[in-house]
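Dear colleague,

Following up on Tuesday's group meeting, I ran the structure prediction for the two-component complex that the binding team flagged. I've pasted the input sequences exactly as they went in, so you can double-check that nothing got truncated or mislabelled along the way. The structure tokens for the whole assembly follow below. Feel free to forward this to whoever is handling the docking comparison.

Inputs:
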Amino acid sequence: MKTLVIIPAFNEEETLRGVILGIRSFLSQADILVVNDGSTDSTGDIAREEGVLVLEHPYNMGIGATMQTGFLYALNNGYNIAVQIDGDGQHDARFITSLIKPILDGQANLVIGTRYLSDGGFKSTFLRKLGIRFFTTIIWIFTGKKITDPTSGFRAMDRKGIELFSKEYPSDYPEVEALISAYKKGLHFQEIPVTMRNRQGGASSIGILSALYYMVKVTLSISIGSFRRVK
Amino acid sequence: MSIRLNLFAIIGSIILLLVILELIRRKYLQERYSLIWIVTGILFLLLSIRVDILYRISNFLGFSIPSNALFFFGVLFLILIVLGLSVITSRLSVKNKILAQEVVLLKKRVADLEKSLRSSE
């Protein structure tokens, strides 16, 4: 099975090397791809020094477009499995093997690493939890499925997921919407417990205003999208 | 309406039309998007030459004074134009994203091909 680990990276020079080394030590047979989303620091240089695959966006295009570039690369180069892991070090590479196991066993097309099905680890702040609960409810309303950590960007998918997401992936705050479109396409998804760390460097990309925007945008997009025919 | 105001409106409309035509000539405005502006310019000119048309429309629709009708249609028109521009911007940003991603992937392929060429030499 050809596996590609995609790291979307925007100004992650402090943490990127650690993330790459972590992936190498737990999943040595996988290819690692850093999609550098127009970083202004040495993120791209670090990735090249480490000898991983690097794609450079000509300008900052946002997390959605960054992940999609990675999925397109996976699609064009015949990868069977794609793993998505953050470059800021909050996802522990140790869990990648358990993340792709349900795919190898043919039990799921899309696996989400959730921090809410395990004890310990970093569970994030009260407000963030409230937001996540909100999205869990939204997803439950539209799909009838209970996803405890729908904003988690620690995921693995099979070829079907790669094909879908390389074709359509929201440009900003994509995680929740991507789950809905996967559901519409009939993909099976599954959550597995992981522990997450608090970010090791950089700043969180989500403030209170953008959190509000996140919620409104996703709700709008999903409810209007439910009137859209599935292609 | 006074003759002076009428003359002023006619001259204004002609200038608007000329500006639009010049923009098209210099290709600052694509023909695709210019049609609505040409129609607007001609409409302005028509209304300033034949003010009685505006009076009749405003009477028919029940506006108390013709200038209210003019403002109403003016604002409505601007809203439609801005909405249209938002649609165009959205479409362009999607196309721009796809284009950038293609370039990124092609650059990678070219680099890989160059590397394999050099190593086979």
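The radius of gyration of chain A is 16 Å.

Cheers,
M.
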